[in-house]
Amino acid sequence: MKLAELIELQRAHHGPGRLRGNLGDGLLFAKNPFYRRVRLATLARGFRYTTEDPGDYFAFPLAALDVLFETRRVPYRDNVSALARLERVRPGFFELRDLSKNRPLPNYVLHESAHAVAFHELFGRPKSVRGALAAPGALLAIELGEAYAMTAEYFAACAAGAGLERWVFAINSYRQRIPAREAVGAAVRELGLEPVVFTVLLAFLSNLFFEERLAAPRVDRMLELWSTPGRTQVLPTPAVRRRLRRALSELMVMNPEFRRDTTRLFLTMFGRSRRVEKVLSADPLELLGRDAKALEASRRLARLLAREAP
């Protein structure tokens, strides 16, 4: 594909809710349902997008996440103008393959938007974002927010098509691998999308609490937490639950050092101990079962990702 064609596709797919300066944004909005649902949910909760840095985000995103929540602005770089300039340098010459090893700087608006949606659902609009994140009882909600961003990226990666769509997704997401894609797809066909999104969310949450693999009772507990009063809950067959457990355990594989270091840095920003394994030693599923507000928020988050808003 010619670079000029890519730029023209960027223009052709622009429209309401899309970012003209974010490469591939309109294409992903049009073709990737999870990318679109997160965007629409972010806008519906009063967040907006900006090419201005609200507080050192471009230098250190993890250390500026609270600024994103405070300003209700999701920052991104204009990485389209640079490609337009490259095209003007030598019109009609450059092709997509010329960018295979020299891509424009990525934007992680999918990940950060999911963080924004989760923060709104779990914390509302507190007077002080830092105060809310530092509160003694905020730990579960903080980790749910990160798990939700991971869940959104996973399902969006599963839905990304081949070729150009996959290429632009790669510069719009941290997620490059999609383990257990077929197994998760089979679980969706057997159980439905919403409960599977919910169990993936709780699998990532468990991993953030340093649980490496899921025992069978853990998946049963996740499905129990998904059920709501008055809803008839038919527990899947043992074979279905075994397949779901294997798939979720495969998803949970993460570099433990990276997980520990990033978690430690973020939590200590808000006054918690460096001994992050001790800080996160509780059972997250039991915490969630005792926290009605967080549980209902986690169910809403799963529904938001699984279906288009009316």
Shape by Cα distribution? globular
> What is the arithmetic mean of pLDDT?
94
Strand content: under 5%
Number of structural units classed as domains: 2
Low-confidence stretches: none
Describe the structure concisely.
This protein is mostly helical and 310 residues long.
Question: How would you explain this protein's 3D organization?
Answer:
With 310 residues, this protein is mainly α. It has two domains: 168 residues, no CATH class; 111 residues, no CATH class. The chain contains 17 helices and two strands. Strands 1-2 form a two-stranded parallel ribbon. Helix 2 packs across helix 3. The model has no long low-confidence stretch (mean pLDDT 94).
How are the secondary structure elements laid out?
Elements: H1 3-12, H2 25-31, H3 33-44, E1 48-50, H4 65-71, E2 73-75, H5 81-89, H6 109-123, H7 129-134, H8 139-159, H9 164-170, H10 181-191, H11 193-208, H12 216-226, H13 238-251, H14 256-268, H15 276-279, H16 284-290, H17 292-306
Parallel strand pairs: 1-2
